[in-house]
Amino acid sequence: MGEQLNNAASVENEVGEKAANEKNPPASQLKRDEIPPFPQFYNLFYTSATDPKPSFAERAKSFMGQGMPKMVVIRSLYNKFLKFEAFDQRMATTSHEMGKNIGTVHKAIHSASKTANTYSNTLEQANSVLHKDLNRSQLQAVAQQMLEKTADMQTTNTELEQSLINARDNIENLQKSLEEIQKQSVTDSLTDINNRMFFDQSITHSMAQATRNNEPLSLVMVDIDHFKIFNDTFGHQTGDQVLRLVAKTIQKTTRDSDIACRYGGEEFIVILPDTDLEGAVILAEKIRLAIESAELLKKSKNKSLGKITASFGVSLLQEGDSEASLIERADMALYAAKRSGRNCVKSEMENNSLKISAA
Fold it and tell me: Where does residue 27 rank: exposed (0-12), middle (13-18), buried (19+ CB within 10 A)?
């Protein structure tokens, strides 16, 4: 009898779970794929399940077919397809509120202008009347009208002043909101370092400025060694901890004028204005040593997980360079560092010397 009750309860649980999954497909997919039930990931699966256009689902399948770890895929999909939609929505909302505030100010100014015109007309009428011989009663009537219109004018001016104060405060808050939206749109949410979009915007400007001022400009590419193995061994949360640690180390080691960004996956890139190749190699080596000396601890157990190392490729802006050619040479130097055993710095000059020696 007990066994029958257990079987019945098991069947009931399965039916209940199946019904719940049918009612909430995104939740069941998160559970099935062992994805943390964070709001942004639920939103991703909900969009995938409900989007009437096949484009999103097709792009999602394309990402899934690249053989990357699930959490990497999920984050890539969210950042690529949904993150900036949220920014656009917040920007639209903020712009709408800004428009409402401007409309309120315009309305208050229009009201004040109308009252001022009325007051001006009242003064002109009073002036023309006062040139006539008026008895006491008539003078009292003119004075009373002037007092009433003056009171109206004072009330309108007070309302206008308060409207302008309120609008100023609201616009200051909206300005802060816009600055926050702008910052978030060019900041990598995981590492809190500049993102790929910011790099794409900055490299063009930095190259143009260097050319205009006849100054050197260098580029450093950084790739965390054996990151996939580390990720698979200790899990994606620890992998995220590694990315944050490396980003923080790069930020601490570089100058305020340098532009450090997350380039993608476990790669970072740093733009070094007014820095020649030798200076860039020295800085890259400084970053390498700082990363190597950092200790990674598993927070839950306060247990050391070993050393992190990274490989570096350095290139220098040359005449006729495009963004792509400058990045490509840094990438080739990085590849040379990987081939040389990792955890080292290679410049494009060293990479060219290796090619000549091999030839």
Answer: middle
Share of residues in the chain with pLDDT > 90 (%) = 34
Query: Is residue 314 within 8 Å of 280, Cβ to Cβ?
Result: yes
Helices (H), ranges, 24-135: 25-32, 39-50, 54-64, 70-77, 83-130
- The top-scoring range by mean pLDDT among 79-83, 109-113, 339-343, 352-356 is 339-343
Contact (Cβ atoms closer than 8 angstroms) between residue 194 and residue 271? no
- Give yes or no: 172 in active site: no
| CA quadruple 253, 259, 261, 267: dihedral sign | negative
Burial of 184 (0-12, 13-18, 19+ CB in 10 A): middle
From the list 129, 271, 302, the residue with the least C-alpha distance to 208 is 271
Torsion, Cα of 202, 203, 205, 206 (10° steps): 110
Tell me how far apart the alpha carbons of residues 359 and 357 are, in angstroms, rounded to a whole number. Answer: 5
Closest CA to 240 of 79, 75, 31, 63: 75
The span from the CA of 269 to the CA of 251, in Å, is 11
How far is C-alpha 223 from the chain's CA centre? Answer: 22
| Of 34, 266, 292, 328, catalytic | 266
Q: Which of 59-63, 124-128, 158-162, 339-343 has the highest mean pLDDT?
A: 339-343
The CATH topology of domain 196-358 is: Alpha-Beta Plaits (3.30.70)
Q: Among candidates 220, 232, 235, which has minimal Cα distance to 276?
A: 220
Beta carbons of 287 and 230 less than 8 angstroms apart: no
Q: Note the pLDDT of residue 124.
A: 72
Per-residue pLDDT, 185:
73
Burial of residue 234, with CB atoms counted within 10 A of its CB: 0-12 exposed, 13-18 middle, 19 or more buried? middle
Question: What DSSP character marks residue 219?
Answer: E
- Give the bridge partners for 221, in sequence order: 269, 313
Q: CA 113, CA 157: separation in Å to the nearest integer?
A: 10
The one-letter code for the residue type at 266 is E
- pLDDT, tens digit (0-9, with 9 covering 90-100), for 117-132: 776 777 777 677 676 7
Could you tell me the maximum CA-CA distance found in the chain, to the nearest angstrom? 116
